[in-house]
Amino acid sequence: MNVKGDWQADSTGYAAQKAYFVGMNGANYAGPKPAALPLFTWEEPSPDGMKTTTLHALHQDMGAKMVEFAGYDMPVWYSSVMEEHLAVRNGAGIFDVSHMGTFDATGPGAAAFLDTVTTNEVGKLAIGESHYTYFLDVNGIPVDDLMIYRVAEERFLIVVNASNNDKNWAWLNGIISGEVQIDPANPGRRVEGVDRFVLRDLRDPAVGAEMRVDIALQGPKSTDILLQLHGSDADKTKVSKLPWAGVTTVTLGGYDLIVSRTGYTGERVAYELFIHPDKAPALFKDLVECGAVACGLAARDSLRTEAGLPLYGHELAGPLTLNPADAGFGSYVKLWKPFFVGKAAFAAHERERDAEVVRFRMDNKGARPAHQGDPMVDKKGRVVGVVTSCSIDTEGYQLGQAYVKVTAAEEGAGVAVFAGSGRTKAGKAPGELGMGTKCQCQSRQPF
Amino acid sequence: MGNTTPADLKYTKNDEWVRLEGGTATIGITDYAQEQLNDIVYVELPDVGAKFPKGESFGVVESVKAASDVYTPVGGTISAVNSGLEDQPELINTDPYGEGWLVKFTVDNADVSDLLDADAYAAYCESR
Hints:
A: about 450 residues; alpha+beta; Gyrase A, domain 2; Elongation Factor Tu (Ef-tu), domain 3; six-stranded mixed β-sheet; disordered C terminus; B: CATH 2.40.50.100; six-stranded antiparallel β-sheet; 4 helices; about 20% helix
């Protein structure tokens, strides 16, 4: 390397042959380059029968209405969606989320790897802390949104969406084995230090006693209910003192648990309990006996919608290919990190973005429910957005989220949803209207 | 199933019920249907005076789960709609055969012999 190179010799303003770019080549580098890696592709395998969680028989015994979700036969409700929703807001609800993916990354290189493949700052997590984050693809679109928990100095628990579990596993292992492209500017680039950590699927029976699945206990009475399980004073104190987003390891009710104070309902008193799948049904049953109300997927969706939390396929990725900033969660993408997969594409999109996900509530009860894809119009009848989610809130009103032009996304602004558009018979289907199109709709809902 | 099927009503395989009194038919959806739909959040009903042939969709019941068309088991003219459902669509859940009725028809033809009686409908639900 010519360290005496004249940085003014070319017009770049820097000496391209100097080692400013740690781990990267300068602009004038002319040496050998690794061959470009192929882009990651993923096709959902055709389902080979419905999968079940270890709680399946319990749900059926409890009279749950079961539906297919992410390839699993899951409870959608037990009694009434609204009763379950209110139980979480006023008491405590328990959810079987053991269909969600649980991985762990262990070893001295685990933090660096996760910092490369996720948007948030893993290195900033202290032991016992967790954060919300994203895997982005090279186009800056989420592969998934997820939680990372630092359970030990060199061990991270990773919890992903059930619907993306297999894709995430293929994506991460493709990166580890150097088989997929992670940096379009340097398409032969591979992550370094892959021999310094091990990624495991904690739902794979091969991990034995360390298998873990997620059970969520959510709502203001969750702490009281959880502490009804017998345990040492030290363990009970760990739970009662657990700060928001904290994670700890305890034995309660005879169960070995990783307990975190996190959730997907908007409740601040909320826990996720990571337990061996064989023990999960007994824990679920015990907590129901202690007063937790069993809740299905429908209440989970209405609670997260009410709380303004994004759902993959709706506010993230999905038909609108929304990224975390589109969804209103751009603060979980740390652009000051030197590199993470998808950074350049995310930053480019951010410079052009003119819309964001906002929340809306209909001002009359009994309004026709809005659905994903329904156009949203302003007072002049211009299409200013598209509904991404809608559900019923605690007070019985339709409440949802929509991707709306920033010029129209003013708090308190009146907008109308052209609801039921999927059922319209004549004219251009409202779902095909683009933003800015004038919509000749006769909305039955007043502004 | 623990659903009720009152003996004085007639039923369809689309889970509507009919109460025929003289030339007026009151129509709603069954206890089985409301339980399958779960919490009902929206009901769209026709205007009084609208005419529907037998078997036609006259309204929409939407729950947290799905939107379902409701078909009339009799032909006729709408003589009344249950306006109480506008603010309280959940009446269909709490009282499907009473407060949760949908519409009343002045029927063209009072013959409902082709519809299911309570026992036949209960057996039909059981078989699903």
